[in-house]
Design goal:
Low-confidence stretches of chain B: none
CATH architecture of the largest domain in chain A: 2-Layer Sandwich
Order of helices and strands of chain A: HHEEEHHEEHHHHHEHEEHHEEHHHHHE
Helix content of chain B: 40-55%
Number of strands of chain B: 11
Structural class of chain B: alpha+beta
Distance between the termini of chain A: 35 Å
Number of helices of chain B: 15
CATH architecture of the largest domain in chain B: 2-Layer Sandwich
Number of strands of chain A: 11
Radius of gyration of chain A: 23 Å
Largest sheet of chain B: 6 strands, mixed
Radius of gyration of chain B: 22 Å
Largest interface: A-B, 80 and 74 residues
Helix content of chain A: 40-55%
Number of helices of chain A: 17
Largest sheet of chain A: 6 strands, mixed
Mean pLDDT of chain A: 93
Strand order of the largest sheet of chain A: 1-2-6-3-5-4
Number of domains of chain B: 2
Order of helices and strands of chain B: EEEHHEEHHHHHEHEEHHEEHHHHHE
Strand content of chain A: 15-25%
CATH topology of the largest domain in chain A: Cytochrome Bc1 Complex, Chain A, domain 1
CATH superfamily of the largest domain in chain B: Metalloenzyme, LuxS/M16 peptidase-like
Shape of chain A: globular
Shape of chain B: globular
Strand content of chain B: 15-25%
Mean pLDDT of chain B: 96
Oligomer: heterodimer
Chain lengths: ~425, ~400
């Protein structure tokens, strides 16, 4: 058991590190937000664009369009054809990533710091001047359809997507991979129109982390995005749906179980209490779920809970994969552990959760890629970037009473559950 | 960066790279043992034993192992491959000595029967989990087909049958024969005091008795067999190819790494332009696995099953063309930049550096500073890559594929 005094000493020792950082935020004339997060002692830089063109922003009947767009915009831009653009990006040694989320398409990259300006220039072309040729559209559409098909071969990943789809109000939880029929019907013309409506620069966020010169970066971006005029953010209406249980038959080796229950968003005063509660449930290997499901009963190899949030709504989700004869017991034990949390937590569980969260925070902060992604998401969620010091203090402020208070006010009562596998379970 | 090294009298190697600017410190124990060191009878024991180390010692219970690491705010785990079992953690610098002490104790586990029987269930669940991951499943089957009776074809997880039949006595015997101090390397990277950590390791591990832990090393170029399996629950064609490559000890390993980027990187590679850009395959990648005295290039391709034969025609064309259409200076330049970028990013984090340091020490018995590694990548010429293609033609591949029933 760890003592409270030891914990305080340990947490105090983090102070020096947290005091060193300074985040810059700047708005361009076009309305785009630029965030800079310096990371000492690194030779790399990483950046992430959040473009407000995610799955929920797509018109009805076009589910999957963002997955096509995410590929299509890289097939030539700014007068360069697909091959020339790809060669230039590769020539910079860029580690590229892109993805579709509920509200955004994310475009990220990490590279050696001296190539940052060249990379940002190319990304400005990709966002502002994609070639969007019809033949290339067809390839992107076919790839998106194959992506959807391959999801069918990955029941674990599919469980996560279906859980979000059933839990969040439509269209917030829409499947980011799309729907087969809607992808089949999608045209180049319609997709161009979606890009023109949704690539709203004034609502776009760019975060850069690592080694860079913020003033130079902003001056360059001001020029690159000068022609864009501020536009209003797009409103979407979400339709709430009651939580339920959904089973998908799949003749695999395991039953893949997904469970989610509503929680508070990062704007809520109870946000840090919720994060600590999840850490007690599933932080390290001594956490409750790992101990009860895997260590004591040997029901699963993979079991874990995590916090997930959109701006409008959040949930605490859990995944477990287990062979059919153990599926019901696994589900029952997980639900019991969720419910048991509000009966009480110990001081040592709380301290362990705090240390785990803060230690992870520092270790993630060593990665420029993680820093850029976290800063961009913070700004979108909270219209500010939380300093590591602020996060640390808020974690520290939580107590056994505050976490229990949160759990009593937000009891884990209603669960949305999804199973994929050879047999159904009986849900609560 | 400062390199430090000490070898204990019993043969346990301690190597370290100190980086006073790092925000964390990582420690790893690399045991030179894995699936290739097992007999068929105990297939999967290395990996099962890796799990059992977390069950504690005569003095520490399983729950206390987990809570002790969690009390340190540690990020910790372990993995087993065909030839290594690696235990590692990253903590803030001031917690490193406690993490090291804990690992030193865990390296002499109790291997209690109750824990063994309970953990057997978890291992069987892990085997089932990977059965539902066709990408892993096809790689595993292709490796076995490629290596045939060579030890590197053995399964890391073992089979349901071998795990069910395994006894704790067999595991204890395996432990005694493989976890000798002269078969273990302790590696530390990040911000820490080397002398202090060394003293700690020496105090706790200095009394372990050395023992010869042999490994049969033999080069094998692969069987070049082709097999396909239909599976009723699949939707895509999953194809894995394996062809001979250099060992980790071979100086051409950097050329091999660059060649696999040129042929099969996610973007801008020959696979990418011929297969993915044209939407014939959803994904196509290649990597080089350089091992102890042996090596293989592995390609993984996933596509709509209707495209399966077209995929293979194109792949064969790409492999054949490597000898005719020589690797261009531009292809080499792009691959080099990608590799150099990856080295920079990986080594900025102590945990990334730890794995590199450990592998270099285990396979080469030497320390390679980052600058040296960068220089070796820069030194690779077009001629080096062309020679490699001549000596290890990717066209001589073993193929295993799985796909939906027609």
């Amino acid at each position: 058991m760890i003592s409270v005094a030891k914990t305080r000493k340990f947490l105090y020792s983090l102070q020096t590190f947290f005091m060193l950082e300074k985040t810059d935020i700047h708005k361009l004339a076009s309305g785009m937000t630029i965030i800079g997060v310096p990371v000492a002692g690194v030779q790399s830089a990483a950046f992430e664009f959040l473009v407000p063109a995610g799955a929920a922003m797509t018109p009805d009947g076009c589910c999957g369009a963002p997955a096509v767009i995410e590929d299509w915009i890289f097939r030539g831009a700014g007068g360069k054809n697909s091959r020339e653009l790809s060669d230039m990006l590769d020539g910079l040694g860029l580690h590229r990533g892109s993805g579709v989320e509920s509200k955004h398409i994310t475009l990220s990259a990490a590279l050696q710091a001296e190539n940052l300006s060249n990379a940002i220039e190319l990304y400005a072309d990709i966002i502002l001047k994609p070639a969007l040729e019809s033949q290339q559209f067809e390839y992107s559409r076919q790839l998106a359809m194959q992506g959807l098909l391959s999801l069918e071969d990955d029941p674990r990943h599919k469980t996560r997507n279906l859980l979000r789809e059933h839990f969040y109000p439509d269209p917030l939880g829409r499947n980011t991979a799309g729907k087969q029929q809607e992808l089949q019907n999608l045209t180049a013309g319609k997709t161009r129109q979606i890009i023109s409506e949704n690539f709203n620069i004034s609502q776009t966020i760019l975060a850069v982390a690592g080694k860079y010169d913020f003033q130079k970066l902003c001056a360059m971006l001001e020029k690159l995005f000068a022609a864009e005029k501020p536009k209003k953010a797009k409103d979407i209406t979400a339709k709430k749906q009651p939580p339920g249980y959904y089973h998908y038959q799949h003749e695999g080796a395991q039953v893949h179980i997904g469970i989610i229950t509503a929680s508070v968003t990062p704007c809520d005063n109870d946000y840090y209490n919720a994060r600590v509660a999840v850490a007690i449930l599933s932080g390290g290997m001594s956490s409750r779920l790992f101990t009860e499901v895997r260590e004591k009963r040997g029901l699963c190899y993979a079991v874990g809970a995590s916090y997930h949030s959109l701006k409008e709504m959040a949930g605490i989700g859990c995944y477990a994969g287990t062979t059919p004869d153990k599926a019901q017991e696994t589900y029952d034990v997980i639900i019991a552990e969720f419910k048991r949390l509000s009966d009480g937590i110990t001081e040592s569980e709380l301290q362990r959760a705090k240390i785990g969260l803060q230690s992870a925070l520092i270790m993630q902060s060593e990665s420029t890629i993680a820093r850029a992604g976290a800063a961009a998401m913070d700004y979108y969620m909270l219209t500010k970037v939380r300093s590591l010091e602020e996060i640390k203090q808020n974690i520290e402020k939580t107590s056994v009473q505050s976490v229990i208070g949160f759990l009593k006010n937000n009891p884990f009562e209603k669960f949305c559950s999804v199973t994929i596998g050879p047999m159904e379970i009986k849900p609560v | 960066m400062e390199f430090k090294h000490k070898k204990l009298a019993n043969g346990l190697n301690i190597i370290a790279e100190v980086n006073k600017n790092a925000q964390s410190a990582a420690v790893g124990f690399f045991v030179r043992t894995g699936a290739r060191d097992e007999t068929d009878e105990i297939s999967g024991v290395s990996h099962f034993l890796e799990h059992m180390l977390f069950k504690g010692t005569d003095k520490i219970s399983a729950h206390n192992v987990n809570s002790s690491f969690d009390d340190l705010g540690a990020q910790y785990n372990a993995h087993t491959t065909e030839e290594n079992t690696v235990f590692y953690s990253a903590t803030l610098p001031e917690q490193l000595d406690k993490a090291v002490k804990l690992w030193c104790q865990l390296m002499r586990p109790a291997l209690r029967d109750d824990d063994f029987n309970m953990e057997k269930n978890v291992i069987l669940e892990e085997i089932a989990m990977y059965k539902d991951l066709p990408q892993f499943d096809v790689m595993e089957s292709c490796r076995a087909l490629h290596f045939g009776s060579h030890p590197c074809g053995k399964s890391v997880l073992g089979t349901v049958e071998s795990i069910k039949a395994l006894t704790s006595k067999q595991m204890k015997e395996y432990f005694e024969s493989r976890y000798a101090p002269n078969n273990i390397t302790a590696v530390i990277a990040g911000n820490f005091d080397f002398e202090k950590i060394c003293d700690c390791i020496e105090n706790l591990c200095g009394s372990w008795i050395p023992k010869q832990a042999e490994r049969k090393i033999e080069y094998f170029a692969g069987t070049a067999k082709k097999e396909h399996q239909n599976k009723k629950n699949l939707n895509c064609q999953h194809i894995c190819l394996a062809s001979p490559a250099v060992s980790y000890q071979d100086k051409r390993v950097y050329a091999a790494m660059l060649l696999s980027k040129i042929i099969g990187d996610d973007t801008g590679s020959r696979f990418f332009w011929e297969l993915v850009d044209t939407a014939i395959a959803e994904t196509a990648s290649m990597h080089c696995e350089a091992m102890d005295g042996v090596g293989a290039f592995y390609s993984y391709i996933r596509a709509d099953s209707q495209n399966a034969s077209k995929v293979m025609q194109i792949v064969k064309k790409i492999f054949k063309s490597l000898q005719k259409e020589k690797i261009s200076a531009d292809e080499l330049r792009k691959a080099r930049n990608k590799v150099l970028s990856a080295i920079t990013l990986k080594n900025e984090i102590p945990m990334g550096r730890l794995l590199e340091l450990g592998v270099n020490c285990v396979y080469l018995g030497q320390y390679r500073p980052i600058e040296d590694e960068i220089q070796r990548v820069k030194n690779v010429t077009q001629a080096d890559i062309q020679d490699l293609i001549e000596q290890f033609p990717p066209a001589n591949f073993t193929q295993f594929s799985i796909g939906p029933e027609k």
